[in-house]
Design goal:
single chain, alpha+beta, 10 strands
Length: 442
């Protein structure tokens, strides 16, 4: 009886020693998986327990390793595919390298929201939307560059308003010169949009920055220059007198030179240097008959034009010619005062030609590059205008009477108004400008 108590005490002490030793082994095993194997049989129970508790962890670790290996395999496969795709692109570039070119483009703007693309607003279809789609379908540019045309160094020479047409628009970009490039592009364009010419240009060529001047034409019924007392119910009977044409041209000639056109666009302060524009010529040509209505074409050439500038220049001359405003308002419109300037309809406006005089002088005779004058395409330009631009203007004018309808709004304008009085009219025009997305004119 008395010998059992020391024995139990010794067993208790051994148990405590085993537990302490097991904890030490477990901590060492946790910190490092490899360590000295316990040589005493007394630590075996605790070690066995540790191994049993680590069993589920080992399975979880194995699953994680397996998943990581699978992800690595997927990443490697994706990387391989990407490299292969890039290799195919490089190989394709070698077979058909991209070259910098200038495209001569003509279009009838009716039904389109201007020239420039509006990314993310597919409901506002533009000329560039059609052109880019045709370039992709024809194989001239990669499909993955369609939404990032900057990669193709794409630039248009002039932005045109909603409904405005062009007979001589020029865009510059890099494209693959496939066989019969122009014909292949036109296969995927609607009839009212055509690529009429293609020329190789220098790598640094930019159709907007290298353009020295732009020439616009504006086709309108001559009844626009009738007296304000004329009965517009019979527009077909009106004929423009030589004296009236001479007066109109004397008014247009006042625009020649450099002036501050802050009153001829939206949201431009008189002090804004960008409002100063240089006009080299502006005149109205001899009238001609189309169907039973007399028309005339106004031509204007300048370095560049602001939003709605040309339409307002024409609108103000019509207001003076009809007797709604005095001639002095034109001089006043270039001053610091705010002047209420009416904006003529956009229907008859056509981008006629863009000019690259400095580029032609520097590179046109170097024996490596062609001059950008499009003389050989002149017949195609004329044919396109006669087939798609002029008939659309005449037909729309006859059906909708946009000019006559606009003329009825001229009495509303106050040409003697002060800056404060014209602010409300400016606000109305600004709201209309905001509604016409993508209608910026160069």
């Amino acid at each position: 009886m008395f010998k059992i108590r020391p024995l139990l005490s010794a067993l208790g002490n051994n148990r405590l020693t085993l537990e302490r030793r097991g904890k030490q082994i477990h901590q060492q095993t946790t910190r490092r998986r490899t360590g000295p194997v316990c040589k005493t049989w007394s630590c075996a129970p605790r070690t066995l327990l540790c191994m049993m508790s680590e069993g589920p962890r080992s399975e979880e670790t194995a699953k994680l390793l397996k998943r990581a290996n699978e992800e690595n395999d997927d990443s490697a496969e994706m990387a391989t595919k990407k490299l292969k795709a890039e290799g195919d692109i490089v190989e394709d570039e070698k077979k058909c390298p991209k070259k910098k070119v200038a495209l001569l483009v003509a279009y009838s703007g009716k039904g389109y929201y201007g020239m420039q693309r509006n990314t993310g607003t597919s409901q506002f279809r533009t000329i560039e939307d059609e052109l880019v789609a045709a370039l992709i379908k024809s194989g001239c540019i990669p499909e993955n560059h369609g939404d990032e045309m900057k990669k193709m160094s794409f630039q248009r020479c002039a932005r045109t308003d909603k409904g405005v047409s062009a007979a001589g628009q020029v865009v510059s970009l890099k494209l693959r010169l496939i066989e019969d490039t122009v014909e292949k592009i036109n296969e995927h364009l609607p009839q009212q949009i055509r690529v009429l010419g293609l020329k190789r240009v220098t790598q640094g060529f930019n159709s907007k920055n290298n353009c020295d001047a732009r020439t616009y034409a504006y086709m309108l019924p001559t009844v626009a220059f009738s007296s304000k007392d004329y009965d517009t119910a019979d527009t077909a009977a009106f004929r423009l007198e030589p004296e009236t044409l001479q007066k109109v041209n004397s008014l247009f000639s006042l625009y020649k030179g450099t002036h501050n056109f802050h009153n001829f666009t939206s949201q431009k302060a008189p002090s804004d240097p960008s409002a100063r524009r240089y006009i080299t010529e502006m005149f109205c040509g001899e009238p001609f008959m189309n169907s039973d209505t007399q028309f005339a074409v106004i031509t204007v050439r300048g370095q560049s034009f602001m939003l709605h500038q040309i339409r307002k220049m024409i609108g103000l001359v019509i207001a003076v010619a009809k007797g709604y405003a005095k001639e002095e308002v034109m001089e006043r419109s270039w001053g610091q005062d705010k002047v209420d300037v009416p904006k003529a309809p956009g229907l008859g406006l056509v981008l006629e030609r863009v000019h690259f005089d400095r580029y032609n002088k520097r590179f046109g005779g170097d024996g490596l590059h062609e001059r950008l004058d499009w003389d050989l395409e002149e017949e195609a330009i004329k044919s396109f205008k006669e087939a798609h631009i002029y008939p659309t203007i005449v037909m729309t004018e006859r059906q909708e009477g946009s000019m006559v309808s606009w003329m009825s709004t001229l009495p509303i304008h106050d040409f003697e108004a002060t800056a404060t009085a014209t602010e409300s009219q400016d606000n109305k025009e600004q709201k209309q400008d905001n509604a016409d997305l993508g209608n910026d004119s160069d």
